Description:
Residues 215-302 form the HTH araC/xylS-type domain. The chain has 13 helices and ten strands.
Amino acid sequence: MTLVSFLLVSGVHLLDLAGPAQVFSTAADLGLGYEVRYSAAHEEVATAQGPALRVGTDVPPPSPDGLVVVPGWRAGGRVPHRVLTDGQAGALSAHRAAGGTVASVCSGAFALGEAGLLDGRRCTTHHGLQDLLARRFPRARVVPDVLYVPDGGVLTSAGIASGIDLALHLVTVRHGPSAAAAIAREMVVYARRNGDEPQAGVMLRHRGHLVDAVHRVQDVIDARFREPLPLAELAATARVSERTLTRLFTATTGLTPLRYQQGLRLEHAEHLIGAGETVEAAARAVGFGDARMLRRLRSRPS
């Protein structure tokens, strides 16, 4: 039986906690041998989303087989220099010294740094907190814009939903990819993402604008990125001329419609290749006629 202990800080984000907790409780339901516990400095813990949680106050016991996870909390770009009690910081250090695994989600990385667990290690956090983490813990090696970073027995992940990816990664390491895939299916989440994927995919990176016509075209491309999509058809969707669409799309996203579609195809192909598909099979699955274009896009500098 593997004990997974969640160490909660006041203002905890519910999804930072619930995402990985659901992974391990689902793993337990599937017979993989997990027990999930929760603790905090006080029995009642305020959450960023409103509802208070009632948990135990016992610190996680050190164990070479156990896992301690520190979910993130509402930071707003400002993180206190001390978020843990002396007992909690000592428990994290003792757990790692005993050979146990320690992980964080989002701003939880600051708690790991406070316990001295980031010194000399690669780590990450939410993209809005990466610079602050690097300044606060100069001996840490902060990796920007990735989903999660494993470094020995210390793992850190980006914001919010990336905690699910981190937890699925830990299940994969312990039980293999088929177990993680079974949990992902049970949770109805997207297939496990690799840690070095960017925190914002193609769709998120290019949606921060206010041009309705371009959003309508992006909706079509997002839903049908595997298909040939003539510019004339996309322009008709936006109710503008082809020339105007190209100008608007490039001005708002930095890409032509074709480059945007290629980016989506490449992103989905990388998921498939990471799951074991050949380049040729991945190319066909995402709509490329053959693998030559996919290889060309994969070799292009980011």
